[in-house]
Amino acid sequence: MRLHSIETGNFKLDGGAMFGVVPRALWERTNPPDHDNRIKMAARSLLIEDRNRLILIDTGMGNKQSEKFFSHYALWGNHDLDTSLKKAGFHRDDITDVVLTHLHFDHCGGAIRRNKNGSYEPAFRNARFWSHKDHWNWATNPNPREKASFLAENILPIEESGQLNLIEGDAIPLGFDILLMNGHTEKQILPKIVYKDKTIVFAADLIPTVGHLPIPYVMGYDTRPLLTLEEKAAFLDLATKENYLLFLEHDAENELISLKQTDKGVRLDESFTLDSYFHI
User: Fold this and answer.
1) What digits encode the pLDDT tens for the residues 50-88?
2) Exposure string (b/e) for 238-271, b if CB count within 10 Å is 16 or more?
3) Angle at Cα 35 formed by Cα 33 and Cα 41, nearest 5°?
4) What is the pLDDT of residue 279?
5) What is the pLDDT of residues 143-154, one digit of tens each?
6) Closest CA to 125 of 117, 116, 113, 136
7) Segments of the chain assigned E as strands
8) Which DSSP category does 31 fall into?
């Protein structure tokens, strides 16, 4: 097995929305905002090269939305999925499986593209797409709070293609374990991968950035923030005891982190890239 960090693109989100009730004076220490109060965000996917499988976890926003749509998210930098895949030695047609942690547009938008005729089609034509059954039902019958994050053009073409595979329970047949979290959205998937004798958890939106390690620092986007508090506390306690590494999807500066217990709770120990940590 080998892991590759895949940078699909960078964007910005409102810092207040990203930190909920936490005052700016506290969160700006780790996530400094711009003049519009927006903080830098990554859309970092993880590619798992494992024998005859090439598994991509999340796909970023993609590029099929309108200029007006993307203007709300202040895209920045020069990362894109195809360039990052090429750097790792692959093409999107090589992908055998795409695991979608959840179906918010910044996690699954790149799963679908427009073809030459302007119609929607899977961006990974040879891949199986994996989503949790309960989350799929949640996303395709969205509540008013999340409706703007669940875009039909990102989701329904996956099912129409016949490439959709729905997970039931807490197991996925791809060679790694998953954790299920329900605070951010129903049945968010966190892949848990054993790699070179270390356990790496793809933190998705449970812990989007280093700045979200303190337990009360919960996103305004979470549908059940009190449940997020419980889930995050239990997870970080276990992660520290078991020496997990966290792969951060949304932190523009920190890719892979280790944790330590302090008198203020679990905090950042060290920050790495995958390649530097594993000496690739």
Assistant:
1) 999 999 999 999 999 999 999 999 999 999 999 999 999
2) ebbeeebbbbbbbbbebbbbbbeeeeeebbbeeb
3) 35
4) 82
5) 999 999 999 999
6) 113
7) 2-14, 38-50, 53-57, 97-99, 112-114, 120-122, 128-132, 164-167, 177-181, 188-195, 198-202, 245-247, 256-262, 265-272
8) S
